[in-house]
Amino acid sequence: MDKYAVIGNPIGHSKSPKIHRLFGEQLGHKISYEKLEATESSFYSAVEDFFRSGGRGLNVTLPFKGLAFELCDSLGKYANRSGAVNTLSFSEDARIYGESTDGVGLINDLKNNSISISGRSILLIGSGGTTKSILPSIIDLNPKSITLTNRTKKNALSLRDSFLHLFPIDCVSGDDIDRNYELVINTTSSQLSNTLPIVNPVSVNGADTYDVNYAWQQTLFQNWCGENGSRSAIQGWGMLVEQAAESFSIWRGVRPETESVIQRLQSEVEN
Question: Is the pTM of this model over 0.90?
């Protein structure tokens, strides 16, 4: 039985073992998938121990996507452009391959919900690791414009500067936004702290909106968008499953069907 796992801190809340178990059952693949908790100082040794014990692949979640990037011998297209890795694979000669599947996961879920990026004005709320991971995929689809807003403007400017060779990106304080956008994506972890990002409500009026957070009920950001005239308000269950399917495809050479897995996660109360 091939061994896989997700590594992060904290990791107890992760739905990845359940998702990959459902993928394995769907395709008749006999796999195991566990959760690994590490610290910044123990991350490298935890990864090495896992692969030495026969592990075939690792998903990497917060806060280790940057460390995973540094660990790799070779990188996929999106990992190379974003500087972040969420999927690790070992070859038979013990070389480590890394890729970032977050952007593909987001784009696939937007497509599943009939939301396009090409030619549209995009507002990204937050400038952390998730935004860094999804920007290359967004840029590839030729939006009309990309604007970043973040609680700390310095961080938004730093992220913008690292992508300016690919696409012109504007930065603006949330309070200073004076226009609406066609697609607004919340990448902050505001749901975990039971707060809302600081953005002028005019930004979401008439917009398609997407919250990368997920919950069994509507997220705070979803509710807020609906209250302020958004065209649609979607949360991140689909992105979670779609990025996992991309990882599974990298490891196993076949991409699982995702719709039934998304529906099952959304409908089960324990989530």
Answer: yes
